[in-house]
Amino acid sequence: MAASKISFGKRLLFITKSLIKFFILIFIFSVLIVFLLRWINPVTSSIMIQRQVESIFSGEFDYIKYSWVDYDDCSPYLPIAFVAAEDQNFPNHFGFDVREIKKAIKQYERGRRIRGASTITQQVAKNLFLWEGKSFIRKGVEAYFTILIELLWDKKRILEVYMNIAEFGDMIFGVKMASLAYYKNLPNKVTASQAALLAAVLPNPLRYSVVRPSGYVRGRQNWILRQMNSLGGPEYLKEL
Question: What is the pLDDT of residues 14-28, one digit of tens each?
Fold first, then answer.
């Protein structure tokens, strides 16, 4: 009996040590990957991989359309359009917009449909590293990567990656491919109105269309344009 207890204790200790080593390795690997991505442009993202796999198994195979473009080679209207649409406090928060989170909680408490409160940094963490879904585990991992990104990247890099990996339609990712596909132009030629239309479909790019915008999308486009002006236009992001 005593021998079996000792044996069980040793096995438990071995498992505990193995788990600790595993999580330490995962931590080191994740920090290293995020650190390197401050300078190395991602060749793909988790969401792109998921869409490619879905395409293969759907029987209607198509290739992901994705090509990187540097922040400074984009129209100044593109970043401000996304900030105005998705995360107006982006230059000032550390990955989490407490004010928007409180608003979302109040809406939930009133029995209303819960509003999205994800910041641009959280969306980068989700789109770049994680799977789709709303489980507490996924949100916890998203929060971890959000903190890492805010610690290791500057705001300009976060916005640059966001613009490049955001989904704008069926198998279309990033502002370069979206600009070419929808406007037949490079991203440095995109107008304020065009940038606002791209931003308007972001809540659900597989449902909303840039080519055939619904009344809702047009209304959202006009709202984004007003918000861009209210924030001060591209000058709002000049300190990034």
Answer: 888 889 999 999 999
Q: Which pLDDT score, from 0 to 100, does residue 77 have?
A: 98
Distances in Å between the Cα of 74 and the Cα atoms of 33, 105, 179 are: 26, 36, 10
Find the domain containing 1 and state its range.
Answer: 1-36
CA-based torsion, 121, 156, 64, 217: positive or negative: positive
Q: Which residues of the chain have pLDDT under 50?
A: none
Neighbours of 130 (CB within 10 A): 17
Q: Which residues of 24-55 are buried (b: 16+ CB within 10 A; e: fewer)?
A: eeeeeeeeebbeebeeeebeebbbbeebeeeb
- Radius of gyration (Cα) for the chain, nearest Å? 21
Q: What is the DSSP string of 74-99?
A: S-THHHHHHHHHH-TTTTTSSS--HH
Residue with tokens 């107006």: 88
Q: What is the pLDDT of residues 85-137, one digit of tens each?
A: 999 999 999 888 887 766 766 665 566 555 556 899 999 999 999 988 778 88
Cα–Cα distance measured from residue 117 to residue 121, given in angstroms and rounded to the nearest whole number: 11
Q: What distance in Å separates the CA atoms of residue 119 and residue 97, rounded to the nearest whole number?
A: 7
Same domain, 204 and 89: yes
Q: DSSP of 33-64, one letter per residue?
A: HHHHTTTSPPS--HHHHHHHHHHHHHT-----
Number of domains in the chain: 2
Beta carbons within 8 Å of 179's beta carbon, 6+ residues apart: 185, 186, 187, 189, 190, 194, 198
Residues 182 and 79 in one domain: yes
54 and 97 housed in the same domain: yes
Are both 23 and 76 inside the same structural domain?
no
